[in-house]
Amino acid sequence: MTDPRILVIGDSYMSADVFTSAFTARGLKADAATLTLADATWPTGAIREFEGDPAEVAKLAAGYDVVAFHAAPVTAEVIEALPELKLLGCARGGPVNVDVAAAKARNVRVTTTPGKNAEAVADLTIGFLISLVRNVPASLRDVDDRVAQGLPLAESTFEGARWFGREIAGTRLGLIGYGNVARLVAARAHALGATVIAYDPFVDPSTVTDTTIVSELDALLAGSDVVSVHARATAENRHMIGAAQIATMPAGSFLINTARESLVDEQAMLDALTRGHLSGVALDVNEPDGPWRELVAQPNVILTPHLAGATHETLARGADMLAAEIQAFRDGADLRWER
C-alpha cells in the first residue's frame, strides 16, 4: 500500500517526541501532536484510564490513516468522526482507553504493546523483595523519626541488631501468574539464589524448565516465604488473595503486589499485618476505596504510586513496538499484537 498518513499523539506520560524518535529510526514519517487537556479522568463505560478530551482527539486525527498514542481517549464517537482511519496503535498492554468493539464494527484495526514494561516491573519487584526481607521500610522510618527528633543517626554495628533480616539465597519465592513479568522476576530471583515456584492454571508445566509450577494456589501460598502477585486481573479473580489465602501463608511471610489492585483484599492484608501474621507487604497498586491511610501508617509497608513501569526504557520500547506494527501494516504483513 502507499505510505499511510500517520499521527502520533503525546500526553503527560508519554511525549510525542518518544514516538517520533522511534518512528524516525524505522523510516516512518509521522506528524506529531500533544494533548492540551492533561487532567486524567476515570469514568465508567466503554473506556477508562485516559487523559484528554475525545473531541480534541477527533479534531487532531482528522484525515489520518494511522494514529499512535498512549493515553488519548478513543471513543466510539471519535472513531465515527474519522472515516479515513484504518489503524489505532495504543502503547499499552491493554487498550482500556479505546472502544475496541466500536473500532472493529468500523473495520478499524487496533494493536497494542504487551510486555513493554515487563523488565521495569520485574526490577521493581526484586527491589521490593530485597527491601522487605531486609527490613528496609521500618529501618528507614526509624531514621526519619531520629531526624525529626534531632537525634544522631546510628553509627554502631550493634544498632543493626534491631533490624535482622534474611538473605535472598534460600528464600522461597512464590509467583502467582507466570507471564512475561513473572518469568523475568524468576530469572532475577534464581540468580540471587532464591527457590522459585509459580501457580498459573493457564501454563503447561511441561513447558517450564527453570521454575516449579504447582497445580494449586494453596500449595504455593503454604510453601512460600514471599508471595508476589503477577496475575492478569479479571472479574472472576477479584480478591483472589483474601483472608483465607493469607491465613494459608506461613506466619511471618511477605506479600508483594505489582500487578493490579483488585487481586488483593487489602483490608484482609492489613488485618494480617496488624496481627503479625504478615511481616511486611509492598504494593505498587492499591484499591482506591481500600484502607490505604492505615496501610501507609504501618512501619513494614512499602506503598508506591504505580511506578513499576515508569522508566524511559519502557516508553522507548513501547514506541518501537508500535513503529514495528505500523511498518507491518504498511507492508501488508501480519500484526503481531493486534486485538
CATH topology label of the largest domain: Rossmann fold
- What is the tally of helical segments? 12
Strand order of the largest sheet: 10-9-8-11-12-13-14
Q: Could you state the order of secondary-structure elements as H and E?
A: EHEEEHEHEHEHHEHEEHEHEHEHEH
Integer tally of domains = 2
Helix fraction, binned, reads 25-40%
Mean of residue pLDDT values:
94
Strand runs, count:
14
Shape: elongated
Tell me what you see in this structure:
- This is NAD(P)-dependent oxidoreductase.
- With 339 residues, the chain is of the alpha/beta class.
- It folds into two domains: 6-116 and 311-331, NAD(P)-binding Rossmann-like Domain (Rossmann fold); 118-303, NAD(P)-binding Rossmann-like Domain (Rossmann fold, 3-Layer(aba) Sandwich).
- The protein contains twelve helices and 14 strands.
- It has helices at 16-25, 54-60, 76-80, 100-105, 118-133, 136-148, 180-191, 217-222, 243-248, 266-275, 292-296, 312-331, and strands spanning 6-10, 31-34, 40-41, 50-51, 66-69, 87-90, 109-111, 172-176, 195-199, 212-214, 226-229, 253-257, 278-283, 301-303.
- A seven-stranded parallel β-sheet has the order 10-9-8-11-12-13-14. The protein has a five-stranded parallel β-sheet with strand order 2-1-5-6-7.
- β13, α11 (292-296) and β14 (301-303) form a beta-alpha-beta unit.
- α5 (118-133) packs across α7.
- The chain is elongated and about 70 Å long.
What's the arrangement of secondary structure elements?
Layout: E1 6-10, H1 16-25, E2 31-34, E3 40-41, E4 50-51, H2 54-60, E5 66-69, H3 76-80, E6 87-90, H4 100-105, E7 109-111, H5 118-133, H6 136-148, E8 172-176, H7 180-191, E9 195-199, E10 212-214, H8 217-222, E11 226-229, H9 243-248, E12 253-257, H10 266-275, E13 278-283, H11 292-296, E14 301-303, H12 312-331
Parallel strand pairs: 1-2, 1-5, 5-6, 6-7, 8-9, 8-11, 9-10, 11-12, 12-13, 13-14
Antiparallel strand pairs: 3-4
Helix pairs in contact: 1-12, 5-7
